[in-house]
Specification:
Length: 309
């Protein structure tokens, strides 16, 4: 276990109590296999475990979440999306409420982040105002969920991508339609749009009824590496160098759209969101293009591309 792996585990923009317990389990697993290589990491893990156990025993999960840099869940510095511009955007929710977004790729496949995986996911399509149902809205549950096959338990979250096969095909309509996969890698300085039902303020959280959008730039690798020296290869950084615009808590799993195609999946970032020189981090969809296409074509045993974590 190295510094990058420890930091990566606690920066996702959607976290709940089960993920906290899973994180502790991962840390304990790594410790038990004698993978700690520095006193800095040992101190960090000890701090995390003490804090986690303390708040879990006292039921103070909200305070615990504030202790960590959180997963992205909402759009900061943006505007309300037009109700006709996101027919591909889906809402993931369960009995506790909405927790992530995703993107419809075909009439039976949804793309989202691996850290959005839950046992009781429901997928809501054709939604704009989460409190108002429209005639085209449809609800599905997963028939299959496929993540990258990774045998390294301690870094299994480094490839933050998941495909969900719906239990039945959806009817394509004005409010429900797929988004295209990328035909080329994204270009630096491209102006792209990210959207979701995540918080529109940070660090205070304000969850909107309708999805918000914000236009941000694909940033150069050097900017990304300066902000996050431990980064994996299959990611994008996007945002504004001066801050003010970002995806945030609640946007996890949603699309980063460039030239009418999905180029990124909202993954993680610093909290508070939209800070100068601290861009959001997105799974780079182009690097997983063959994996996605093979699965949709019926080859569900295909293995993800190597990650340079």
């Amino acid at each position: 276990l190295n510094d990058s792996q420890v930091v990566y585990l606690y920066r996702y923009r959607h976290v709940d109590d089960l993920q906290i317990l899973h994180f502790i389990q991962q840390v304990c697993c790594c410790v038990s296999h004698s993978l700690l290589r520095s006193s800095k990491i040992s101190v960090l893990i000890e701090t995390l475990l003490i804090k986690a156990i303390s708040v879990l025993l006292h039921g103070q999960l909200v305070n615990f979440l504030d202790f960590f840099a959180a997963p992205i869940t909402e759009i900061v510095g943006g505007f309300e999306c037009n109700k006709t511009e996101h027919p591909f955007l889906v809402l993931l929710y369960n009995s506790k409420g909405a927790f992530c977004a995703g993107t419809l790729l075909t009439n039976e496949w949804v793309l989202t982040a691996a850290h959005c995986n839950r046992e009781d996911i429901q997928i809501r399509l054709g939604t704009h105002n989460i409190h108002v149902h429209n005639k085209d809205e449809q609800i599905r549950v997963p028939k299959e969920k496929l993540c990258c096959l990774n045998t390294n338990y301690c870094t299994q979250w480094s490839q933050d991508i998941m495909l969900i096969r719906l239990n039945s095909s959806v009817n394509i309509s004005e409010h429900i339609a797929p988004l295209s996969l990328p035909s080329n890698p994204p270009r630096v300085d491209s102006v792209c749009r990210v959207m979701g039902w995540g918080t529109i303020t940070s660090p205070e959280v304000t969850y909107p009824k309708v999805p918000h959008c914000v236009n941000i730039n694909i940033l150069h690798n050097e900017v990304c590496e300066a902000a996050y020296p431990w980064l994996s290869g299959n990611i994008l950084c996007a945002g504004e160098l001066e801050g003010d615009k970002d995806s945030c808590k609640g946007d996890s799993g949603g699309p980063l759209i460039c030239y009418g195609q999905i180029h990124g999946i909202v993954s993680w970032g610093h909290f508070p969101c939209a800070q100068p020189l601290e861009p959001g981090v997105y799974t780079k969809v182009f690097d997983y293009l063959e994996w996605i296409q093979d699965i949709i074509a019926g080859n569900t045993s295909v293995i993800c591309p190597n990650d340079n974590f």
